[in-house]
Amino acid sequence: MNLPPKVTDRAFERLAEIGADVQGQALRIAVEGGGCSGFQYEIKLDTPAEDDLVLEGHGQKVVVDSISLPFLTGAVIDFSEELIGARFVIDNPNASSSCGCGTSFSM
Q1: Is residue 17 in some structural domain?
Q2: Of 74, 77, 102, 104, which has the highest C-beta tally within 10 A?
């Protein structure tokens, strides 16, 4: 059975801080071909679509389209604040390798 991705409280709280829900938007996590390792994540605010998986928490939504979903089985979507900057990050157990930029991976 494929486990849907999980979203941490910290990621939902960050979405609340930027007021995504007020704008009727959700955080979209998509996987597309390209990047330095074969696949890359696209992370952006977007309007939920009909065939999206919607993950909800703290009144916020994170959406994943049906094509990207298999690549994100069991992944954890988090928000990280480091010296180099704050960003949404994905801990993906399906990725066999990733690159330093944190947005590209291979399976």
Answers
A1: yes
A2: 77
Helix (H, G, I), strand (E, B) or coil at 45: strand
Q: Does 18 fall in a domain? A: yes
Q: Which residues touch 34 (CB under 8 Å, ≥6 apart)?
A: 40, 104
- Domain residues for the domain of 16 are 6-100
* Residue 88, domain CATH: 2.60.300.12
* Residue 105 maps to a domain: no
Angle among Cα 41, 42, 45 to the nearest 5 degrees reads 140
Q: Is residue 90 within 8 Å of 20, Cβ to Cβ?
A: no
d(CA 26, CA 3): 20
- The verdict on residue 72 lying in a domain is yes
pLDDT (tens digit per residue) in 34-85: 767 788 899 999 999 999 999 999 999 999 999 999 999 999 999 999 888 8
- How many Cα atoms occupy the beta-carbon half-sphere of 19 within 13 Å? 2
